């Protein structure tokens, strides 16, 4: 997908589903990346938290008791409308959702104690500008090796031709250049087993894992063969590869290190 196609896709998903995949029946084996568990441990009751690429706001609403104020932003109007609807159902007075581009954060300098970003792009310099001197940035991203057997079956996919680890290194360097230090990263490669074909099809239709899935007439035949080749007693096998980065701002010039 090019940028315009991805934005249109993201808006459609935002209006129809948000970023909520909680109803999928999927078994996971191995350590899973979950930055919001780390966020709950790091948060103080007086903290202000910014969540970049908040989607339908599901994760922020789940941790709403962890901080004094939580602000979720997303560039997609569809996602924000879904987030507002989710907020109305929960009724959390300390949560706000705003449409905003991560490339230009419209907040005062040093305003937030914690900034998070899951499966979305971010601008390291912008994060550094709005983060307090003692604040922490935590991000979780999809690695190039995610859903590898699916991408190999289709011969295309999200970051399919990129070397695994490219995005991790790019973000580590960007954070260092923006003045962050104590940059800690971890990689996770989890086995996933989707219980039914419908679960896997829902995932493919609501994510860009296989760009334009279903638009090619061969797609469902490829998927049928993939499911036959990867069917196990536990479900249809694939993988979820993620990485996390946790970083703090350097207190003094020249204190940058990885």
UniProtKB/TrEMBL annotation:
Occurrences of domain Methyltransferase (ranges): 50-135
GO molecular function: methyltransferase activity
One GO term (biological process): methylation
EC number annotated for this UniProt entry: 2.1.1.-
Keyword annotations of the record: Methyltransferase, Transferase
Broad class of enzyme this protein falls into: transferase
Keyword Transmembrane in record: no
Pfam family, one: Methyltransf_25
Name of the protein: Class I SAM-dependent methyltransferase
The organism of origin for this protein: Cohnella hashimotonis
């Amino acid at each position: 997908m090019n940028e315009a196609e991805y934005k249109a896709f993201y808006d459609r998903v935002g209006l129809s589903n948000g970023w909520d995949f909680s109803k999928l029946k999927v078994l996971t084996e191995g350590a899973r990346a979950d930055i919001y568990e780390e966020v709950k441990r790091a948060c103080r009751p007086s903290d202000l938290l910014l969540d970049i690429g908040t989607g339908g706001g599901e994760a922020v609403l789940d941790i709403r008791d962890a901080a004094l104020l939580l602000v979720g932003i997303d560039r997609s109007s569809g996602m924000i409308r879904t987030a507002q609807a989710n907020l109305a159902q929960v009724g959390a007075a300390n949560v706000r959702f705003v449409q905003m581009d991560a490339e230009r954060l419209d907040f005062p300098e040093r305003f937030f104690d914690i900034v998070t970003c899951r499966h979305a792009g971010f601008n390291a310099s912008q994060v550094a500008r709005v983060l307090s001197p003692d604040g922490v940035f935590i991000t979780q991203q999809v690695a190039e090796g995610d859903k590898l057997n699916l991408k190999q079956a289709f011969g295309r996919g999200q970051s399919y031709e990129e070397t695994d680890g490219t995005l991790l290194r790019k973000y580590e360097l960007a954070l260092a250049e923006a003045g962050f230090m104590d940059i800690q990263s971890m990689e996770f490669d989890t086995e996933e087993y989707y219980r039914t074909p419908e679960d896997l099809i829902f995932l493919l239709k609501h994510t860009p894992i296989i760009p334009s899935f279903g638009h090619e007439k061969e797609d469902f035949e490829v998927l049928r063969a993939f499911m036959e080749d990867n069917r196990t007693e536990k479900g249809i096998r694939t993988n979820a590869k993620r990485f996390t980065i946790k970083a703090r701002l350097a207190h003094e010039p020249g204190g940058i290190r990885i």
